[in-house]
Amino acid sequence: MGATNTVITTWKKNMQFHSTNPAGDLIIDASPEDGGNGDGLRPKALMLSALAGCSGLDVASLIKKMKLEVDDFRIDIIAELTDEHPKYYHKVKVEYHFYGAALDEKKLQRAVDLSVEKYCGVMEMFRQFAAMEIETTFHSA
Q1: CA atoms in the 13 A half-sphere facing the CB of 112
Q2: Tens digits of residue pLDDT in 6-19
Q3: CATH code, domain carrying 78
Q4: Which InterPro entries match (predicted)?
Q5: pLDDT tens digits, residue range 64-117?
Q6: Distance CA 80, CA 88 (A)
Q7: Are residues 61 and 81 in the same domain?
Q8: CA distance 106 to 90
């Protein structure tokens, strides 16, 4: 049997929940237009943060391993929801942006490819329900 994760999420008031995470806690809340106070993170957007974080950790680890020079690195995710309930992300674009004067584009692209195709478990989960588009942009100083 594989490793398991346990997260405990407790209703606080109105539309707000407190959720545990192995490294800390977070508050989830609905937006005011959905009956909440807007004081917490939105569940669907959290999924996008999880996707960026998972892949970002892979790429950062590979940047370190390959001893690549990168001044800055950013992941933008643009995700489209279905119109019908239950609404879920059916189209997801992940944009990797690398900044620096001495970018090794070939190796950085390899790092992205390894994360997307081999290492990122969250990416694999997203592939089960969404059409994924991956784009890498190099911003040379």
Answers
A1: 21
A2: 999 999 999 999 99
A3: 3.30.300.20
A4: KH_dom-like_a/b, OsmC/Ohr_fam, OsmC/Ohrsf
A5: 999 999 999 999 999 999 999 999 999 999 999 999 999 999 999 999 999 999
A6: 8
A7: yes
A8: 30
